[in-house]
């Protein structure tokens, strides 16, 4: 029986358990509900929980344990000369057995018979059934595959029986436990509370998952490439080694990527910070209610547009525009109509990313500026300062820590942004200061290294995880520091 | 405003009447005030200008993608070309491998009066027809072999370059050798258009077709299905988990180290770059757990993890907005803590929670970077039957088309972006309406 069918059976048993449980509670109460400890639905839920939960646990354990057991048994049955080969070759043999076993299920009895008579025909027979094999299988593989099929079959039957027994036993025992004094509600609420806690620990699990997964792969990488060569190397040239070559040909220097990331981020902040800050100031201090109610949501639309759309905008519109206008400028000044801004450049990516960041800066700083107490404003205006003087000399200094926090959060977004730079910044890892030339970023290289065929053993693939953990660490530090500043600042006025 | 405009004249009057009055720099200060105000307006105008430019650039390039040039002509399914030796009864493969493009080419050549011996002419005629005609005619013939030998009226796609030319996107003043359609083809195009054989139709293929290397036959249909699967997975997983987590943190959690840790964690996860979630998905779901690459299931799981913090933050805000008096009243009437939350607080917070969820989903729908890493940048031409099959997503399709060099793909890409933006607008408008309709002020 397939897992989904089993789940359906469990669900049916659970629903039945609920109905029987509530019905029995009602019957026990005999029309006088107040004689029960809990409402009848809780008795029903109690039975349902005990029919479903143990069965689910059985399925989960089985899904994890059974393939491990089957694989070790099959490998144990390998001939001695195969066992003597390397682990990688044994894995290869095992994968082939898996493919054969899938193919065996599609054969009729006669075809099977014929194939077992002559293992040399196996490859062509299976290929005809849509199961391609990499090589002609050795005779032992056919019997192993047959064993594998039988064991999988047995395991599946056994699981089905076990799960149904578990569900029925749980339902029966909990049904028996129902009595007027039985504290069903407390039991059910206990289970609910545990599941709430489990749900909130997913946040922790995600972080642990991020750190652990990236750290393990990064450590694999650092086993092949020394850490200092990665962190302090100034050349990025990860040549893809030819198949079979194990040498870690190529240089993995982080510095040029980091330089590009920070440079593009800097240009983006140069656009986003003045525009965003002035927009926030105007909106919170000058704008009438109507202007504010129109302009603020419109600006926030910028934050809702997917970054791929910005990337396309940069690639198709902004980049060519900058290129053409630079050609015109150059032509006017020197008479030579050659563009000095390339279509893919630090400037293109920076400007477009800056536009994307405007709403982040403006809405975060808007909140902070509005949080400055009224009294400070009124005091300054009462002393005869103009609005702008009040803003520059009183409100901004008061809001400064919060604004700095907001800017740090925005900067971390600029550093982690991917799609705009993938399309608009270029792929050449260079260290230079000309904003009109293309540079590349950490995120672009992560995407570059991981699209296409992956081999989790080559440094060319694994370097992406080292880059990822670097990126994660930088943005995490920025965010934690920003949160710290913002929190500290908030306490001043509360 | 009136103050600002009258003050310089007042200062001037004052200066002439009472020369001893000190100049305290009011003029300069008011000028600074006006400048400051202007900067603010300019900043907002700059932001809105770019919003407008972005939308204008996409819409002006993309609206033509919703129309497609089609050619409708009588096609003779010639026995001579499709099945010369009449062996289709014994060899059904014959009908699959037959040279259908020639059938279409000859039909068009006949309409245009090009002789069968004019090789260059035939080649130019062939350049006007989309390669997808092969599959289209093959399907017609295999569905009903009896049409061989008859003449049928067939509507098929024009070639992408001819499509661009017919929509006026190719500059015909450029020398003939530098553009993709020749003067001869343009002449034929106009001739066909006048006779009504060539015309623009609504482009249904854009919404039903999958990936294709030929722009005229490429569509976002398959990508839409992939996105739909992922959105369903995100909704089914992240809404219950997110709500459960927020209820615990907001209503039950004691103030201790562990809950503090969870809080800080959630805030940080909301700010982790999305590409990092892609790395997580690659390492955990694909490399460790062995899920298939490019599957919508993995994409859905990754996007779920990415969306969870957004939903948790929105849900907690919604729960916080429910006044404590509701809880006190329920508790006072003898409800347990759990009953209070699930029977009273949660229903009242539901509009806020759903609004946050929709916004989170909209965010997930437009997300590209993590999907690139888990291998969803695949050439997927068939509709994925289950979430375990290779799939692609709408924003990823946009990314792949953006990297295509052909002019006709720019139009397609913009068209796909318009489709994506329409979905996002619908979701956000839905969220706003939901908030307007059900929001309660306490």
Largest sheet of chain A, order of strands side by side?
A: 1-2
Query: Beta fraction of the residues of chain B?
Result: under 5%
Question: Could you give the distance between the termini of chain B?
Answer: 37 Å
Total tally of structural domains of chain B: 3
Characteristic terms for this protein:
heterodimer; A: 494 residues; mainly alpha; MetI-like fold; B: 442 residues; 3-stranded antiparallel sheet; 19 helices; 5% strand
Describe the structure.
The complex is a heterodimer of chains A (494) and B (442). Chain A has 494 residues and is mainly alpha-helical. Chain A has helices at residues 3-29, 40-76, 80-83, 87-104, 109-117, 122-128, 139-177, 184-224, 227-232, 255-286, 289-304, 307-334, 346-370, 374-382, 387-416, 419-424, 442-450, 459-493, and strands at 236-237, 251-252. Chain A is 77% helix and 1% strand. Chain A contains 18 helices and two strands. Chain B is mainly α. Chain B has three domains: 2-63; 67-209, no CATH class; 221-438, Orthogonal Bundle (MetI-like fold). Chain B is built from 19 helices and three strands. In chain B, strands 2-1-3 form a three-stranded antiparallel beta sheet. Classes of the chains: A mainly alpha (494), B mainly alpha (442). At the A-B interface, helix 8, helix 10, helix 11, helix 12 and helix 13 of A face helix 2, helix 11, helix 12, helix 13 and helix 14 of B.
Layout of secondary structure:
The complex is a heterodimer of chains A (494) and B (442).
Chain A: H1 3-29, H2 40-76, H3 80-83, H4 87-104, H5 109-117, H6 122-128, H7 139-177, H8 184-224, H9 227-232, E1 236-237, E2 251-252, H10 255-286, H11 289-304, H12 307-334, H13 346-370, H14 374-382, H15 387-416, H16 419-424, H17 442-450, H18 459-493
Antiparallel strand pairs in A: 1-2
Helix pairs in contact in A: 1-2, 1-7, 2-7, 2-8, 4-7, 8-18, 10-13, 10-15, 11-13, 12-13, 13-15, 14-15, 15-18, 17-18
Chain B: H1 2-17, H2 26-62, E1 67-76, H3 79-82, H4 93-97, H5 100-112, H6 119-126, H7 133-143, E2 151-157, H8 160-166, H9 183-195, E3 198-202, H10 205-208, H11 221-252, H12 257-271, H13 274-288, H14 296-321, H15 324-332, H16 337-365, H17 369-373, H18 394-402, H19 407-438
Antiparallel strand pairs in B: 1-2, 1-3
């Amino acid at each position: 029986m397939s897992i989904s069918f089993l789940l359906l059976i469990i669900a049916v048993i659970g629903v039945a358990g609920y109905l029987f449980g509530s019905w029995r509670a009602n019957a026990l109460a005999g029309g006088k509900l107040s004689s029960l400890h809990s409402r009848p639905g809780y008795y029903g839920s109690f039975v349902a929980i005990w029919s479903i939960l143990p069965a689910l646990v059985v399925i989960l354990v089985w899904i994890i344990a059974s393939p491990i057991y089957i694989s070790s048994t099959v490998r144990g049955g390998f001939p001695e000369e195969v066992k003597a080969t390397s682990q990688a070759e044994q894995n290869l043999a095992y994968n082939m057995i898996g493919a054969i076993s899938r193919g065996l299920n599609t054969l009729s009895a006669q075809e099977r018979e014929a194939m077992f008579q002559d293992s040399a025909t196996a490859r062509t027979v299976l290929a005809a059934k849509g199961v391609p094999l990499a090589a002609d299988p050795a005779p032992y593989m056919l019997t192993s595959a047959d064993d594998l099929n039988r064991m999988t079959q047995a395991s599946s039957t056994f699981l089905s029986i076990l799960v149904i027994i578990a569900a029925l036993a749980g339902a029966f025992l909990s049904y028996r436990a129902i009595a007027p004094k039985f504290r069903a509600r407390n039991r059910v609420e206990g289970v609910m509370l545990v599941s709430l806690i489990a749900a909130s620990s997913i946040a922790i699990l995600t972080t642990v998952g991020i750190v652990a997964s990236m750290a393990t792969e990064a450590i694999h990488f650092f086993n092949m490439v020394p850490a200092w060569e990665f962190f302090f190397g100034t050349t990025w040239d990860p040549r893809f080694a030819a198949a079979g070559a194990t040498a870690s040909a190529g240089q993995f220097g982080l510095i040029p990527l980091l330089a590009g990331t920070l440079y593009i981020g800097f240009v983006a902040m140069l656009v986003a910070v003045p525009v965003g800050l002035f927009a926030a100031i105007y909106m919170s201090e000058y704008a009438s209610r109507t202007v504010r109610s129109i302009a603020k949501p419109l600006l926030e639309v910028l934050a809702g547009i997917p970054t791929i759309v910005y990337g396309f905008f940069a690639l198709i519109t902004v980049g060519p525009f900058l290129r053409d206008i630079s050609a015109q400028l150059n032509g006017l000044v020197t008479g030579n109509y050659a563009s000095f801004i390339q279509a893919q450049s630090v400037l293109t990516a920076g400007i477009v990313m800056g536009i994307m960041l405007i709403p982040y800066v403006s809405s975060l700083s808007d909140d902070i500026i509005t949080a400055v107490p009224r009294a400070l404003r009124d005091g300054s205006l009462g002393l005869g300062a103009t609005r702008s003087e009040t803003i520059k000399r009183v409100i901004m200094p008061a809001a400064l820590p919060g604004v700095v926090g907001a800017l740090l959060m925005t900067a971390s977004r600029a550093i982690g942004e991917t799609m705009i730079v993938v399309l608009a910044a270029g792929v050449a890892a260079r260290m230079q200061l000309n904003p009109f030339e293309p540079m590349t970023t950490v995120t672009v290289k992560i995407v570059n290294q991981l699209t296409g065929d992956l081999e989790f053993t080559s440094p060319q693939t694994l370097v992406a995880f080292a880059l990822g953990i670097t990126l994660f660490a930088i943005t995490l530090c920025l965010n934690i520091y920003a949160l710290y500043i913002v929190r500290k600042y908030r306490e001043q006025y509360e | 405003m009136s103050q600002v405009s009258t003050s310089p004249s007042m200062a001037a009057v004052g200066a002439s009447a009472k020369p001893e009055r000190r100049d305290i720099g009011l003029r300069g200060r008011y000028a600074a005030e006006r400048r400051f105000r202007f900067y603010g307006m300019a900043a907002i105008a700059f932001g809105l200008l770019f919003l407008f430019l972005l939308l204008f650039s996409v819409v002006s390039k993309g609206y033509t993608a919703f129309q497609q040039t089609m050619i409708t002509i009588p096609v003779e399914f010639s026995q001579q070309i499709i099945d010369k030796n009449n062996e289709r009864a014994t060899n059904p493969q014959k009908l699959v491998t037959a040279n259908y493009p020639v059938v279409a080419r000859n039909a068009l050549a006949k309409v245009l009066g090009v002789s069968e011996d004019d090789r260059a002419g035939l080649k130019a005629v062939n350049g006007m027809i989309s390669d997808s005609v092969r599959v289209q005619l093959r399907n017609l013939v295999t569905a009903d072999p009896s049409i061989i030998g008859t003449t049928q009226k067939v509507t098929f796609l024009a070639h992408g370059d001819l499509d661009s030319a017919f929509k006026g996107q190719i500059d015909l003043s450029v020398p003939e050798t530098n553009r993709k359609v020749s003067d001869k083809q343009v002449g034929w195009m106009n001739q066909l258009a006048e006779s009504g054989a060539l015309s623009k139709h609504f482009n249904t293929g854009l919404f039903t077709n999958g990936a294709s290397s030929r722009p005229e036959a490429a569509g976002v249909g398959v990508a839409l299905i992939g996105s739909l699967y992922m959105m369903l997975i995100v909704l089914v997983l992240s809404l219950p988990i997110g709500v459960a987590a927020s209820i615990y943190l907001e209503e039950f959690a004691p103030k201790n180290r562990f809950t503090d840790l969870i809080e800080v964690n959630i805030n940080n996860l909301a700010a982790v770059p999305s590409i990092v979630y892609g790395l997580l998905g690659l390492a955990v779901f694909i490399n460790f757990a062995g899920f298939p690459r490019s599957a919508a299931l993995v994409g859905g799981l990754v996007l779920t993890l990415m969306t969870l913090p957004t939903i948790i933050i929105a849900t907690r805000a919604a729960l916080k907005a429910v006044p404590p008096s509701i809880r006190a009243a329920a508790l006072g009437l003898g409800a347990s803590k759990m009953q209070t939350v699930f029977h009273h607080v949660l229903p009242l917070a539901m509009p806020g929670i759903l609004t946050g969820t929709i916004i989170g989903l909209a965010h997930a729908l437009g997300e590209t970077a993590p999907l690139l890493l888990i291998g969803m940048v695949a050439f997927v031409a068939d509709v994925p039957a289950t979430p375990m099959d290779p799939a692609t997503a709408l924003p990823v399709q946009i990314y792949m088309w953006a990297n295509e060099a052909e002019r006709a793909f720019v139009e397609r890409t913009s068209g796909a972006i318009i489709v994506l933006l329409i979905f996002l607008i619908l979701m956000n408008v839905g969220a706003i309406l939901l908030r307007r309709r059900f929001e309660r002020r306490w």
